[in-house]
Amino acid sequence: MVMALAKEIEMRKGEFQDEVVETIYFGGGTPSRLTIADLKLQLDSIYENYTVAQNPEITLEANPDDLSSDYLIELSKIGINRLSIGIQSFFEDDLKMMNRAHNSAEAKKCLQEATQYFDNISVDLIYGIPGMSNEKWLQNIEMALSFNVPHISSYALTVEPKTALHSFIQKGIIPQPEDEVAQEHFQILVDKLAEHDFIHYELSNFGKENYFSKNNSSYWLGKKYIGIGPSAHSYDGEQRGWNVSNNALYLKSISENKLPIETETLTKTDRYNEYIMTGLRTIWGVSLERIATEFGDTYLNYLNQQAAKYIEDNLLFVDENILRTTKKGKFLSDGIASDLFLLNLE
């Protein structure tokens, strides 16, 4: 699989002939299970086949139990300069309920060590966990802040089918997560991180100045990207592509020098809807001028018409021709965006 990933990187270099690679992101699954040699092979393949910026952001998603001191040192030596660590919670009972491989002690130890070798660290936290009081959630946030990390990503607990958590809820062992609790936790998070000079630059992401995720910001701003490996998605500004999810089929295809990818060309309406969704989730908002020039008056009139009730309810506002969510509207941005989508033009 590692060799196939490196080969796909090489096979797709033509797609980025006129582009400069600004970010490299090892994510999806558990890339921190890879050896240093495995990771270096992928980086070498990128540098050999693409034009890479002088100081690219190179992120590794990692589980706390994978980050030994030796591994951290070696990661920094091969050029990884940003870590995204899946802490989720600093409490033992939460980690057991979510079936996480690490424990609370490992979460704290890994951050103590990681901050010695890395300046740019993001921590993932989960809110809306059944039984989690506001006080306990606040303690989670304060514990993350105590390590002086410059970036926090935080998501409401979602229950995926066929997971241990789903089974526990079905059996009545654990209560169903409540939206009201998640909304309270979200507001506590927003207020607490604002006190510590974090900028709430995307619905689920908070960064100190100069520490926004460049990789994720590129997605939200509609830049091109190539996704490597099974299930990986790509986007070139007009087409979206996705690799086959089956590992065996992926390996077979790469061995036969075929790209295992399906593509779809986005219609103007698709692109409008995606821009609304990503724009409302971020501090950059939705430019009404861009809507007019890129999509036309029909789209602009529709957007203004649909947005009017949310502006009246103080969930959206317009400032300097940019449509954004208010503080009250942030948590509801996905639902608001779906009501601004256009479904019937193309």
Keywords:
single chain, 346 residues, alpha/beta, 14 helices
Structure description:
With 346 residues, this protein is an alpha/beta fold. Helix content is 44%, strand content 20%. It is built from 14 helices and 13 strands. It has helices at 2-11, 36-49, 69-77, 92-97, 104-117, 134-146, 164-170, 179-195, 214-220, 247-255, 268-281, 288-295, 297-312, 333-340; strands at 20-26, 51-62, 82-88, 120-127, 151-156, 199-202, 205-207, 233-235, 239-243, 261-265, 286-287, 316-319, 322-325. The strands form 3 sheets. It has a 7-stranded mixed sheet with strand order 1-2-3-4-5-7-6. Strand 2 (51-62), helix 3 (69-77) and strand 3 (82-88) form a beta-alpha-beta unit. It is globular and about 55 Å long. The model has no long low-confidence stretch (mean pLDDT 94).
Q: How would you sum up this structure in a few lines?
A:
This protein is an alpha/beta fold and 346 residues long. The chain is 44% helix and 20% strand. The protein has helices at 2-11, 36-49, 69-77, 92-97, 104-117, 134-146, 164-170, 179-195, 214-220, 247-255, 268-281, 288-295, 297-312, 333-340; strands at 20-26, 51-62, 82-88, 120-127, 151-156, 199-202, 205-207, 233-235, 239-243, 261-265, 286-287, 316-319, 322-325.
